[in-house]
């Protein structure tokens, strides 16, 4: 059985790891809250898909990765980019369409690329980067590099044929690939029960011979532990692992606003999930176990806000691409 809940071992993590994960989650959350604040100015002209509520997954997964490990993402990519070590100044500049952005202002929020962080691609096409991650893993295996290739995607990608093809190929060739499904229950405005039959997502992966586990995506410690075991399995040459983390987005599918008024989910459902806020959950643990004090957590908040304000200044003061070379770096077939 691939359900982590039934085989959980209580592990006391190194306090520095817990603090790193907490700081990373706070950075992701406050960065996106700044987007919410600034978006009405209409200086950001690209769509934004916020991951508020998902933060434990990128923070917990990426803490297990080395610099040489590569990451691929989807339209909801901010948290993955930040957690992999991306530069928030360059990312915000990208969202503003500035030449100092990580994709030189050509990609916007949904097309982040940063080779310096080995964040190789994010695209809005559902499932679009999943085969790319397997391709990178195949290259790594052929070159004996020993690194892991990670694909982040949502539950709707399970409905795409490319996921099944990639799972089959990765399983057959024992590729060093980590598949991370962030199951937030909705594909845009449609609940998973209206899109998929009554079967566990991890069973899909297991059907392709891929080792699979499921966990609480709002519990950063659990995310970290499950991923650590998965990475050990992959780096031991045992082939790919599929992880499903149950989570919930607090904001609308695309944009900075709340969307309970649309009627596809209730205020009560949203409230119930926000009670399980991953940042508050880990913060309470840090305080209860005296790993951190209130003053230390407040300092993290202060330092994070300073860092984000510096990113805002950098992005706003940066230049747009020149009109005569606006198509440079853009491939068109």
Shape label: globular
Radius of gyration equals: 19 Å
Low-confidence stretches: 3-11
Helix content: 40-55%
Strand arrangement across the biggest beta sheet: 2-1-3-4-8-7
Task: Write down how many β-strands occur, each being a DSSP E stretch of 2 or more residues.
Answer: 8
What does the average pLDDT come to?
95
Question: What structural category characterises the helix and strand content?
Answer: alpha/beta
From the N-terminal CA to the C-terminal CA, the straight-line distance is 46 Å
Order of helices and strands: HHEHHEHEHEEEHEHEHHH
Q: How many DSSP H or I helices? A: 11
Strand content: 5-15%
What kind of sheet is the major sheet?
6 strands, parallel
Explain the overall architecture.
With 333 residues, the protein is of the alpha/beta class. The chain has 11 helices and 8 strands. The chain has helices at residues 15-38, 56-62, 78-83, 88-95, 130-142, 161-172, 201-207, 220-238, 267-274, 278-288, 294-317, and strands at residues 70-73, 119-122, 149-154, 177-183, 186-187, 190-191, 211-216, 241-246. The strands form 2 sheets. It has a 6-stranded parallel beta sheet with strand order 2-1-3-4-8-7, with helices on both faces. Strand 3 (149-154), helix 6 and strand 4 (177-183) form a beta-alpha-beta unit. Helix 2 runs parallel beside helix 8 (220-238) and helix 4 (88-95) packs across helix 11.
């Amino acid at each position: 059985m691939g359900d982590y809940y039934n085989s959980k071992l209580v592990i006391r993590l190194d306090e520095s790891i817990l603090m790193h994960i907490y700081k990373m989650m706070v950075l992701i959350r406050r960065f996106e809250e700044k987007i919410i604040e600034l978006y009405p100015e209409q200086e950001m002209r690209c769509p934004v898909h916020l991951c508020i509520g998902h933060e434990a997954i990128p923070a917990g997964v990426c803490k297990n990765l080395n610099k040489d490990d590569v990451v691929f993402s989807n339209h909801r990519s901010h948290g993955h980019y930040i957690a992999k070590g991306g530069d928030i100044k360059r990312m915000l500049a990208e969202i503003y369409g500035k030449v100092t952005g990580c994709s030189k202002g050509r990609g916007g929020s949904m097309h982040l690329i940063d080779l310096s962080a080995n964040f190789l691609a994010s695209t809005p096409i559902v499932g679009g980067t999943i085969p790319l991650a397997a391709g990178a893993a195949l290259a790594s295996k052929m070159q004996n590099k020993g690194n892991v290739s990670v694909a982040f995607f949502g539950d709707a990608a399970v409905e795409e044929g490319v996921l099944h093809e990639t799972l089959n190929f990765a399983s057959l060739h024992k590729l060093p690939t980590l598949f991370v499904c962030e199951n937030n229950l909705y594909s845009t405005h449609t609940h998973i029960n209206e899109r998929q039959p009554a079967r566990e997502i991890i069973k899909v992966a297991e059907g392709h011979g891929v080792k699979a586990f499921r966990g609480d995506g709002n519990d950063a410690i659990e995310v970290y532990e499950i991923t650590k075991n998965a990475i050990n399995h992959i780096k031991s040459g045992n082939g790919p692992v599929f992880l499903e983390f149950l989570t919930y987005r607090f904001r609308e599918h695309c944009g900075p606003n709340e969307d309970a008024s649309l009627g596809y989910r209730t205020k009560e459902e949203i409230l119930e999930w926000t009670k399980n806020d991953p940042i508050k959950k880990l913060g309470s643990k840090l305080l209860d176990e005296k790993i951190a004090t209130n003053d230390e957590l407040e300092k993290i908040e202060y330092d994070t806000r300073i860092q984000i304000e510096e990113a805002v200044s950098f992005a706003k003061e940066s230049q747009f691409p020149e009109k005569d070379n606006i198509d440079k770096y853009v491939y068109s077939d």
